[in-house]
Amino acid sequence: MCGIIGYIGPRSAAPILISGLKRLEYRGYDSAGVALVSRRALRVYKKEGKLAKLQAALPKRLGGKIGIGHTRWATHGAPSDANAHPHVSADGSIAVVHNGIVENATELRERLATEGVTFVSETDTEIIAHLVARADGESLEQRVRGALALVRGTYGIAVVDARAPDRIVVARNGSPVIIGLGEHEMFVASDVAALVRHTRQVVHLDDGEIAVLDTGGFHTTTMDERPIAKSPSTVEWEDGAYERGGHAHYMRKEIFDQPEAVARTLSGRLDHHFHTAHLGGLNLDPRELLDVKRVKLLGCGSAYYAGLAGAHLIESLVRIPASAEPAAEFRYRNPVIERDTLYVAISQSGETIDTLMAVQEVRQSGGRVLGVVNVVGSSIAREVDGGIYMHAGPEVSVASTKAYTCSLVCLALLALHLGRARDLSPEQGRRLIDAMERLPAGIEAALAAESHLEAIARRYADSRSAFYIGRGPGFPIALEGAQKLKEISYIHAEAYPASELKHGPLALIGPDIPTVIALPHDALLDKSIASLEEVRARSGPVIALTHPGDGRIAGRADAIIEVPPSEDVLNPVVMGVPLQLFAYHCALALGRDIDQPRNLAKSVTVE
Ligand code: F6R
Predict the structure, then answer these.
(1) Does residue 22 sit in the same domain as residue 164?
(2) pLDDT tens track for 354-394
(3) Same domain for 253 and 233?
């Protein structure tokens, strides 16, 4: 949720830190700061608010070839200059940036206070700075190790010491730390987004590891001082993939990326001979596929909604029970883990803590868990037994769009693969493959209607509330549509199975609350039209999301959004797209901060 950057090398550190923070701002944007070591002294600049405020506060010329920076999403202590990172020890020698949470912060704070330490912030991170400064040990590495031995909780940290201006010490426990390898220079970040401008050669730290970076390279050890050899990997995404590419917002760019992103998700994975999907990373042989009796999909937010749509898809194609559950609910209810259930964790970032913990819960109870993940080398990708990468490209806007869509496509591939290993006929497999290959064109057609969606959005952007309803696969479409609207436009939106309307929410329907109804032309269409009538009978404006060709809908809706039809189970893929654009244009009409909505941040790495 927060972002870390660090640099050591021959160049001036400040511009590198600032451009890195710019790339990380989507991870948290309530305050930012940098610490530079220059002439054996720390220079620390911190500002509450967006990064631009910090930039404006920095002196024009800023020395120092070693430094660390941070962009924050508040957990301990409100956003303020004092609570922004880096945090500095009382003697002014140590600066620390930290992602994660110190769970025994209260106890450590009291202990340090009784030893005479005065705190200048409300954060748990400041504790680490004081602990490092007061720890025994000749080297910074030893002192960091000593300090972390007292800390309980999660952390990704980078530490500099004004008295040791030739190194950065970094450590990881539950929060990502990635080292970037340059020529006579080294970088560190919590996200490859901040590194790719400088290098695509990276090393991911694992939990319980500490690394020391200097201009000659890095060395890694475990907390108990065992040396660890780490080999670099190459980042899949190039620097240009992080640019907005002429779009006003990352969200719009990512919505328009979808035809290409889906084509990449499918690329090389469709087998026209056996009418199945090639999924090399699953690590499941055909016999193991036959042993799967149930599928359980786990994720948070939009990833959970993709899981709900995926569960429909899997259950109807594979004919085994499939269900989805929010990862945090799952992990805290002491779930029964079954050997013949296939667990699937869905996560764009691969760092969402609740999803990661759910994966660990399954694995430690002997279950098998797959990942549907976008970020290669992320914590979830490294923890699972196998999986399918989305290949959606980087998603920067806080609101998930292309990752939601690509995760659904991954689940369709999984359903095809599982189904064909069981009872799905070659003909059904062939039809599904044809339909999957038509998805990019279907999405293109949905995108082509942008100006129509913009006009509808302008009409309804002043609504104080909206309903989204659907049946069967239409319900996850409604959930995700409502999610997009509320998170970026701040219009209250609720999603219901259309059949549930008359069991309560109908009481709220009236002329000033629009209802978006998903009306795919599937077996439930007649029933869905009956729900539309229930809304109309209460004078509720209706926005119908459907396919061309059913004369009954035109006269009954106040606005119609049409997308090309697909196989029933794949309808959520294309039907999600206009709802993304509708939410985008509502937010635009209301002048919202679309890519960085209030109270939110990309990738929730704290509980
Ligand atoms: C909504 C949104 C969030 C994420 C959720 C999971 O637009 O972005 O609901 O979907 O926080 O994130 P990942 O997929 O990174 O695990």
Answers:
(1) yes
(2) 999 999 999 999 999 999 999 998 999 999 999 999 999 99
(3) no
Task: For residue 489, report the distance from its CA to the centre of ligand 1, in Å.
Answer: 17
355 lines ligand 1 (CB under 6 A): yes
Q: Which ligand 1 atom is at minimum distance from the Cα of 604? A: 11
Instruction: Judge whether 606 lies within some domain.
Output: no
Q: Is 602 a catalytic residue?
A: yes
How confident is the model over 588-598, as pLDDT tens digits? 999 999 998 98
Q: What is the CATH number of the domain that holds 375?
A: 3.40.50.10490
| Span 211-222, pLDDT tens digits | 999 999 999 999
269 & 321 share domain: yes
Cα–Cα distances in angstroms (integers) from residue 107 to residues 115, 127, 132, 578, in the given order: 13, 10, 16, 51
Write out the two tokens for 295: 């599928």
Q: How confident is the model at residue 1 (pLDDT cuts 50, 70, 90)?
A: low
Phi, psi of 163 (to 5 degrees): -90, -5
In this structure, what CATH number is given to the domain that contains residue 179?
3.60.20.10
Nearest CA to ligand 1 atom 3: 301
**Band of residue 547 on the pLDDT scale cut at 50, 70, 90:** very high
Percent of residues, the chain, with pLDDT higher than 90: 89
239-262: average pLDDT: 95
Strand 542-546, strand 559-562: pairing: parallel
Task: Report the SS3 class of residue 101.
Answer: coil
- Expressed as residue numbers, the domain containing 264 is 243-437
Same domain membership, residue 419 and residue 361: yes
Q: Is the CB of 265 under 6 A from ligand 1?
A: no
The predicted-structure confidence for 78-132, as pLDDT tens digits, reads as follows 889 999 999 999 999 999 999 999 999 999 999 999 999 999 999 999 999 999 9
Distance from the CA of 6 to the center of ligand 1, in angstroms? 26
Contact between 324 and 381 under an 8 Å Cβ cutoff? The reply is: no
| Residues 236 and 258 occupy one common structural domain | no
Q: Is residue 123 part of a domain?
A: yes
Tens-digit pLDDT profile for residues 309-328: 999 999 999 999 999 999 99
- 266-294 pLDDT per residue, tens: 999 999 999 999 999 999 998 999 999 99
Which of 202, 217, 241 is at the close of a domain?
A: 241
Q: How would you label 147-178 residue by residue, b for 16+ Cβ within 10 Å and e otherwise?
A: bbeebebbbbbbbbbbebbebbbbbbbbbbbb
Instruction: Judge if 124 and 180 occupy the same domain.
Output: yes
In a domain, residue 373? The reply is yes
| Å from CA of 603 to ligand 1 middle | 7
- CA–CA gap between residue 523 and residue 526 (Å, rounded): 8
Predicted model pTM: 0.91
Is there an atom of ligand 1 within 6 Å of 604 CB?
A: yes
CA of 300 to the centre of ligand 1 (A): 6
Rounded to whole angstroms, what are the CA distances from 120 to 77, 109, 191?
Answer: 11, 12, 28
Domain boundary among the residues 437, 462, 494 is at 437
Task: Clarify whether residues 226 and 337 are in a common domain.
Answer: no
Contacts of 56 (CB under 8 A, 6+ apart): none
Asked whether residue 600 is domain-assigned, the answer is: no
Q: Which of 191, 352, 383, 579 to mutate to test the pocket of ligand 1 (most atoms within 8 A of CB)?
A: 352
Q: Are residues 6 and 150 in the same domain?
A: yes
pLDDT at 25 over 90: no
Contact predicate 454/503, CB 8 Å: no
348 lines ligand 1 (CB under 6 A): yes
477 pLDDT tier (thresholds 50, 70, 90)? very high
